[in-house]
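for the record, two folds in this file. i put them one after another cuz i was lazy. first one right below, seq on top, structure tokens after. the second one comes after a little note so u can tell where it starts
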Amino acid sequence: MELSVLNIKGEDTGRKIALSDAVFGAEPNEHAMYLDVKQYLANQRQGTHKSKERNEVAGSTKKIKKQKGTGGARAGSIKSPLFVGGGRVFGPKPRNYSFKLNKKLKNVARVSALSQLAKDNRVALLESFSLEAPKTKEFISILNNIKSTGKTLVVIPSVDQNIVLSGRNIPKVKVATAADLNTYDLLNAERVVLLEESVNIIENLLSNK
């Protein structure tokens, strides 16, 4: 599969780059993508939720009413879950939601996501560029020139603070390095914009692994 390289003005440079079939032309594995996204979302959870059970609620231990002769059920504690202000039965406790996935499965998931994007013609190649200073307006102009107006993932070869700072305040736009790509960000984007130098890094990371 070949894609044309665009410049920051949205014009075709006349150059084309052949994308590896092993990374951009594989058969998507939906279950692998599901597991990788599930792990990503699970890792975002703080797991600090907590409710008090009956032994943790503050309240009198005095017997509320006599055992017999009231016509109602027995009640031994105001902290019972049956009363307002009582403890909660089987309430949430702090826990760790993260779980392990094999590296090979995570690589299969990323390859599947990239292949699906390429198959749907949602991958664009952009000529490598740099900004002299963080300029959000200039970054928006570049995205408009290449007609990326929806959810866009911009993949740069390495950390460039000027590009990162220029794109971080733009709604629906995320800037990521090629080495830090994850399945969730790929599937969440309507379009992925790869800087020219990012292609080799991605292919080296994901091919034959």
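(here's the note) second protein begins now
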Amino acid sequence: MNYIHEYQEKLRTPEAAVKVVQSGDWVDYGFGTNQPILLDEALAKRKPELQDIKIRGALTLKPRQIVSADLKRECFTYCSWHFSGYDRQLHDRNLCSFIPMIYRNMPRYYRNELVVDVAMICVAPMDKHGYFNFSLSTSATQAALETAKIVIVEVNEQFPRALGGREECIHISEVDYIVESNQIGIPELPVAVPDEIDEKVARLIVEEVVDRSILQLGIGGMPNAVGNLIAESDVKDLGMHTEMLVDAYLAMYKKGKLTNKYKQIDKGKSVWNFSAGSRELYDWIDQNPFLAVYPVEYTNDPAVIRQLDHFISVNNCVEVDLYGQISSESSGIRQISGTGGQLDFVTGAYLSRGGKSFICFRSSYTNKKTGVMSSCVVPTLPAGGIVTAPRTQAHYLVNEWGKVNLAGCSTWERAEKIISIAHPNFQNELIQHAEQMKIWRRSNKR
């Protein structure tokens, strides 16, 4: 069939397309690189004529015009499922609200709970069969579009076409309006350059990686350092099953480490959910049958992850307390990122035969303004601090001073292990707190 006529009938300018948005609507922008550019600009220009427009997005990689045009939030209320650095800055200025979630549940939120009046997302060009590909972010995209009363796609010819898997595309028959933005590039995420601490942590984790391990790497310098170190190691025949596809996987592939030959499910395929990284990474994704993109309800399901032997999950955290509670998304009441898929993979990795989850962190941080150093190991999480991974799910903690396994440990064993990898400057103080909390044995080191 030829869909050119239908395409032309649905083609609109950005200004014409956003006319469908009415006061009081919930508008969905999608996830990461799929968030619209021209539609966002056009909607921002309608501020004088609209009221009470609520907008959902996540992991924003380019400034949002609906925010810049409405710094008093008189018309637009922007909300994010997971903060990028930009989202965090907006939140600090009270210009972005956070939506708590566990990532694997995101499609269910859309299908069972949420209202979407208008969805507008960026997609790759239509193919000869009439399908627009979601490209770099399958995430919960199909669930959001199924829920939406009106669907607008912003076509970008520079977007790579990601092969599935499933739920990686939408047919033109399900699209209401089409906008073209072919002169706009793709947001890239600079590859974090690991420093000495990142490399120390990476070496401790790579010691645990065996041949045929299946890897999930989170965002940031430490997971990236792990991937790069694995690429230079002697391990072989590794597999990939991850939510975020980052440049470290490409580095492993180039070195012949990533083969997926021995995966118990999705054999021969590198499974992923969304991507943000370099242009080279995006080029690798384009039409590549070695990669298979799936919705998050599959990639992040612990019941799926547990089927993969020797699953290794590597993620970051902000701080950890002496009970083993892990906060990876807030510092007190200040929201930094989000739960995302960390709890999904911490849970799934422990269920895997031979699986291990590693939560990485720096033992201390220094305030740039005051020069004062503080410990990232605290007696208890501060008031308002969010528990991303509960102590009951904590497995390995790793920083530049070592790694400890908390699985099955009593409260005093946890305190002893966690303090052993705290920065030496803070260990005596932490022991005193542990004694007051009645989680310290007299036989422990004082």
